[in-house]
Design goal:
Keywords: Signal. The chain has three helices and eleven strands; from the N terminus they run H-E-H-E-E-E-H-E-E-E-E-E-E-E. It is mainly beta and 200 residues long. It has two domains: 35 residues; 113 residues, no CATH class. The longest helix has 11 residues. The chain starts with a helix and ends with a strand.
Length: 200
């Protein structure tokens, strides 16, 4: 029964909603708070996508479950999470620039175009993986075009539009003193996005 439940849990994606103190109250009490609000938890791909678009990735299912279990444990008041009770140690930071993130859905075919025009009120999402100093990680972002956007291209070459992203990647070790345990996690933040032609 436990094995069946474990397999099912790997395929589930659910919404986790947590509440925290206001920043003033947190500061007054010396707490370092981690906000995980309306997050998408993906067990199959070992990451949590927060409402701000940033991603927390884990090395394995055990580390991910430790993270989720501890921040939801009865050891905390339900209205906040404090990392002051954890050993939250930054191991390293890596930056990656203009990482290919996938093709635009508005240019499904290769063509010789001199100009691409994206009209207002259009939007699309990009998702990809990239290698880091701590293994391969997932990242994603969305792009909305509030006004018509013109993107020039070289009409002598076949091209499509593609998304690119600048990434900030931070590696942490989180110790759980109450449990005499700990886990690693990788935080991925998309800092800048670009939509540009890519050529064959």
């Amino acid at each position: 029964m436990k094995k069946v439940f474990f397999k099912v849990s790997l395929l589930l994606s659910f919404t986790l909603v947590l509440f925290i103190f206001s920043s003033q109250e947190a500061s007054a009490n010396g707490f370092n708070l981690e906000l995980v609000s309306s997050s998408k938890v993906d067990f199959e791909n070992l990451y949590i996508k927060k409402s701000d678009g940033s991603i927390t990735a884990f090395d394995n299912i055990k580390d991910m479950q430790l993270h989720l279990n501890y921040i939801n444990s009865n050891g905390y008041a339900p209205e906040f999470i404090t990392l002051a009770r954890l050993g939250h140690r930054l191991i390293g930071t890596q930056y990656k620039y203009r990482v290919f993130s996938g093709y635009s859905k508005f240019t499904p075919f290769w063509t010789k175009a001199s100009l691409y025009t994206l009209t207002n009120n259009q939007s699309e999402s990009f998702s990809s993986t990239t290698n880091t100093d701590w293994g391969s990680i997932n990242f994603s972002f969305s792009k909305s075009y509030g006004v018509s956007t013109n993107i020039p291209a070289d009409s002598t070459r076949y091209s499509r539009l593609a998304g690119y992203a600048d990434l900030k990647i931070e590696r942490y070790y989180v110790s759980l003193p109450n449990l005499h345990n700990g886990y690693y996690k990788t935080e991925v933040t998309v800092q800048n996005i670009y939509i540009d032609p890519i050529y064959q």
